[in-house]
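Extended Data, panel c. Modelled sequence:
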Amino acid sequence: MKRPLMEILACPICKHAPLNLLIFEEKDEIIEGIITCSDCNRWYPIIDEIPHMLPDNLRSEKEDLPFLKKWKKKAPKKILKEGKPFNLA
């Protein structure tokens, strides 16, 4: 994902903008990271340079939870404990 994309992104659930970006791995583009919404406490993973910004009913717990576990040392504690739609609590 290219950094300038963050300027036009909004939360697909509550429509809040701007969103927060935390980068876990970056080369020419953001390879892995997490986008968070401070209004509704939702989070969206960036996997293989693609932001997965889907509504809750289209998200996969089998994909999202392993992502959080992989990056739990770098992910925001609030997302790990209270993030929507899935968290590690």
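The chain is about 20% helix and 25% strand. This feature is highlighted in the accompanying rendering.
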